[in-house]
Amino acid sequence: MAGLSDRVETRITPTIESMGYDIVRIQITGSEQLVLQVMVERHDEKQLDVEDCASVSRAISALMDVDDPIDNAYTLEVSSPGLDRPLVRPEDFDRFAGYEAKVEAERLIEGRKKFRGRLIGLEQDVVKISVDNTVMEVPFVDIKRAKLILTDELIARAEGH
């Protein structure tokens, strides 16, 4: 369903961005009853509230009423990425450099697939993460999933916005 998610993203992104939001991730899940999950964040990095989600949901619903690439019935869910957010775009790894994260690779890298440590950032399409005082390098294209770990530092960052 990745191709379908991409078509949905292409359809809704200009409107969502013009409203002051960035799309973090779009997922379509389920088999009999599909769920279209749209994760967004504010351009100003302030916490998303219920009204933000409702506004985005109304905008997406209106867009999909006009030109819906999904053939089946589905439920729309709009949400915030939360503090322990997924890291999905290359710029996320620089934006959250210095914070604790979990990174899971699609293939073995130096004998392992899972890495937990402090993000260093992204250099030439390679995510660098400090694991037990060793810098591990995971090519961005090989990342299966990555997310921040909820820490006091991360909570303090959120309270500062």
Write up what this structure looks like.
The structure is a single chain. The protein is an alpha+beta fold. The chain has four helices and eight strands; from the N terminus they run αββαβαβββββα. The strands form two sheets. It has a five-stranded antiparallel beta sheet. The protein has a three-stranded mixed beta sheet with strand order 1-2-3, covered by helices on one side.
Quick recap:
The chain is of the alpha+beta class. The chain is about 30% helix and about 40% strand.
Number of separate domains = 2
CATH superfamily of the largest domain: RimP-like superfamily, N-terminal
Computed over alpha carbons, the radius of gyration is: 17 Å
- Identify low-pLDDT runs: none
The ordered H/E elements are HEEHEHEEEEEH
- Helical residue percent? 25-40%
Distance from N terminus to C terminus (CA atoms, Å) equals 35 Å
The coarse silhouette is globular
Tell me the structural class. alpha+beta
Q: What is the strand content?
A: 35-45%
* Fold-level CATH name of the largest domain: GMP Synthetase, Chain A, domain 3
Please give the largest β-sheet: 5 strands, antiparallel
Which terms summarize this structure?
single chain, 161 residues, alpha+beta, GMP Synthetase, Chain A, domain 3, SH3 type barrels, 2 domains, five-stranded antiparallel beta sheet, three-stranded mixed beta sheet, 4 helices, 8 strands, 30% helix, globular
Which SSEs are present, and which pair or pack?
Layout: H1 2-18, E1 21-29, E2 34-42, H2 50-66, E3 74-79, H3 90-95, E4 100-109, E5 112-123, E6 126-131, E7 134-139, E8 143-148, H4 152-159
Parallel strand pairs: 2-3
Antiparallel strand pairs: 1-2, 4-5, 4-8, 5-6, 6-7
Helix pairs in contact: 1-2
